[in-house]
Hints:
The chain is of the alpha/beta class. Among the domains are: about 5-175, Alpha-Beta Plaits (2-Layer Sandwich); about 225-360, 3-Layer(aba) Sandwich (Rossmann fold), CATH 3.40.50.10610; about 585-678. It has 29 helices and 14 strands. Strand 13 (about 305-310) and strand 14 (about 315-325) form a beta hairpin. Helix 15 (about 430-445) packs antiparallel against helix 16 and helix 17 (about 465-480) runs antiparallel to helix 18. It starts with a strand and ends with a helix. Pfam families: Guanylate_cyc (PF00211), TPR_8 (PF13181). One of its GO terms (molecular function) is adenylate cyclase activity.
Amino acid sequence: MARNRQLAAIMFTDIEGYTSLMQKDESQAISIRGRHRKTFEITTEAFNGQLIQYFGDGTLSVFKSTIEAVECAIELQKAFLEEPNIPVRIGIHVGDIIYSKEDIIGDAVNIASRIESLAVAGSVLVSDKINDQLRNKGNINTEFIDAVDFKNVNRTIPIFAVTTGGLKVPEKESLKGKTKPKESKEFEFYRKKSLYVLGFLSIIILALAYYVMKTSNVDSIKKEATLVVIPFENMNNDDASDIFTDGITEDIITHLSKIQNLQVISRVSAMHYKNSNKTIKEIANELNVNYLLEGSVRVNNNQVRINANLVDAKEDKNLWADNYDNTLVEIFKIQSDVSRDIASALQITLSDNEVLRIDNQPTKSAEAYTAFKEGQRYLHQGGGKVEELIKAEDLFKKAIEYDPEFCRAYVGVAETYMEYIFWGRESPKKMLELASIPALTALAINSNDGGVYGVLGAISYYKYEKEVAIRYLKKAIEINPSYVGAYNKLAWIYAFEGDLKLMEENFNKVLKLDPLSSKYVGDMVQAYYYLNEFQKGIDLVDKSLNRFPNDNMLIWTKATALSGLEKYDAAISLYTSRSVASNTNWMLGYCYGKTGQYDKAKRILDYQLDKNKKVYVPAYMIATIYMGLGEKENALKYLERDYEFGGQGLFFWGLKHDIKFRVFQNEPRFIALLNKID
């Protein structure tokens, strides 16, 4: 017998009191059953359902669409309520089934049967999974009844009644059916009586527990909700599906980061474990997390199936697992469902705002989503290569063409322009003007998206609008509590204010959420440089270099910290050991100048000046080389020129503390420049 698995909405119906009626009036009972079956067959076919079997006075049917299953149930009850009415009960659940032409089996079938057993005549009861899919369906309303423990079902299931069309809603107290047995009155009496004794014993036990916890290092009962989403496995084994699968992982991370009481490791650190052979415990220890989400993705034409598994990483124990099937267009719905289920598994109660943010579906265009994910891939490759940034921008704009209301695509365009500034690839003034348009467009589309406020905060940050930037960034964190980039920008702002405590507080949050990102480690080392905490920076970067000894950014930031300690020869050795820009870097030119190697310094200066004739080079970098050569007038001239181009935000905010330019602290032109950006 051929069998296959599929996701389906399962509906059970039966006629209340049919057996009793059969005993009283057999001909009437047969007539009612005949009308019931005829109505059922016509209505089920109209809503694309499939009748699996009749059994006595009941039916079992399946639907590919949850919405159509509920709409069918409503129409059935409307028909059965017409005189002479037929007292029918209906229960619906959705889940994975093993299906064949002869029958269907699976836990979902058993649960649907048990839900139907709770119903009363004229009612339609549905599970929480059905109810979740009805939330955005404005013409179907439901009412929560109770959370029920069914026989042979290992989880408590919230039950809802459909209220649309005046359908009957059972009273919570009247619920009967295939539930776990309740305690007898006699047992309840003795149970209550025994509570007095148990209460006394509990006091003793609690006192002992308190003593043990005070005198040992026992972990708290409830673990901190820290989680990493390991890159999902691509079951299709092709490059296109691989990009899509990585995109799913990223989006689930984004969805989960909207949950206030959950700390989610960022995509950069999570992606280190793609195709990793490390055990769950090893990954948990390296990232200092308590929970791990893993899974797989399979795409077939326009259908997608996601398998997800939540693991207690410290105990290496499965907490929850489920399958999700839907069309590519509904991919965000799957991600929302995964986020809700994980919150439930971790006993996190979601606020109304969190539910609203998680349930938001950014686009219903599969083409827009695909273009957007490809754009993110180029944007996140790092290194600031112009060709990659151009591809990212084009793909985000392509996504907007497919869906002009796709908020995230506009954020993607703005973030791409910000990368030009970070890597010094274009004039900040020009890029900030370009970035403001898509950022404000995104805000107009969705004012409840953390990414929108994150990019607006970045724009304000580069414009030296400190207070505005802080407001935007804190709003971004309010919406996405695990938003690493927002914490990073806040850390920089506090660094340039000279507030070491708040700087470290925000950077430590960054490194907790993204512990394997060399970019953010490098940022913190550079911030220590501006605060003249050079040795702190060296100690921090050395830990990361033990893990990533050939990382060019880490090598660069350590060399820069050494230059702050005036260990120029050691810095030069590190700068020249890098696999990129080992002989043309501007900080290398500065160090050559400080050690009296003027010819080498001037060669790098000439290289940068010649390069500036062809492409944008931040004037600050050229000013730095002039400082190494002791040419203060030229250094000042280029600092002033850099400001005219919009400045290099990170460098310019640090001018007040930058040891390289300390000799200018009483120079009127330098003071005037600082006043412009203060």
